[in-house]
From TrEMBL:
A GO term, aspect molecular function: catalytic activity
Coverage span on the entire protein: 558 to 848 of 850
Chain ranges of the EAL domain: 24-277
Protein name according to UniProt: Diguanylate cyclase (GGDEF)-like protein
Amino acid sequence: YEAKFGNYGTRTFSSVLNQALIDRRELEQEMASALKHGGFELHYQPQCDQNGRVAAFEALLRFTHPTLGVVPPSRLVPIAEESEMIISLGTWVLREACRQNRQWQVEGYPPVRVAVNISSMQFAREDFADRVAEVLDETGLAPQFLELELTESVVVKDFTESTRQLQRLKRLGVSIAIDDFGTGYSSLNYLHRLPIDRLKIDRSFIQLLNAPNSTLPILEAIISMAKNMELGVVGEGVETDEQMAMLCLKGCDLLQGFLYSRPVSADRAKFLLHAGPLYESLMREDALAVA
Ligand code: C2E
Ligand code: MG
Ligand code: MG
Ligand code: MG
């Protein structure tokens, strides 16, 4: 007990729980105020083609609490979902990502897509596609430069309704990616019936490529399935030369991960747009040779 709860000193377990609730409420209030006064930020992580060129940026929510410090989205999103703040926060994310992407285009940078994570609660709203249309209209971003990331579980929850929602979105001209692909519990037979554009292979499959029970067969299966269905495929969480080389060898179109870049501020993302390839293809051949 001492070792496990050492940080909490002599406080009882229930007072620790109590404190957690207070922290949570405080965080929720802080988030509500941040949403009003501009306290949220987006960071951008590149998705590169096999030659290391930036093809897209994934927008990732960032929040720094005045006393708690940086709060990760894995903590923010559930809190925002509980209070339904996720609807207005999600719209802010969408608008900010589109505005920023359009801004880069206006400044003359080569056009790329921006990929925005969409929560299940946003996707479930009947007027979601209308919100997306409004944001595109307001920001002037052409729809082919916006991608929406949805997880498998969100899409298969209500297949009929999801299909309708996806069709509305597709009619706008935006693209759809299935995030964390392979971690859901869904059957594969739903996939070919959904109007989607890309699969994002969950990073767990990439990080276990070199494990004793390699995930390589799964990776190969996902990539070849994506190819057969004419879907694009993104490898997530690429951290090493070997992982990158293997994904390229197997035909993965896009790669995203710390090997290329961590998520960075909008200012730094802009530099990545004219920095040339983030990874030299020469180095890729070296890595392939040793893989
Ligand atoms: P995700 O959509 O799967 O985003 C990728 C996450 O993997 C990001 O974490 C990113 O920083 C991390 N990552 C990228 N490359 C690597 C790598 O090479 N190694 C490792 N270990 N991690 C890597 P982040 O930013 O903490 O976001 C976590 C999750 O929070 C996201 O997972 C997404 O589900 C959610 N999220 C983030 N921003 C938003 C948002 O604006 N709206 C909603 N609804 N969810 C969001
Ligand atoms: Mg994502
Ligand atoms: Mg993901
Ligand atoms: Mg993930």
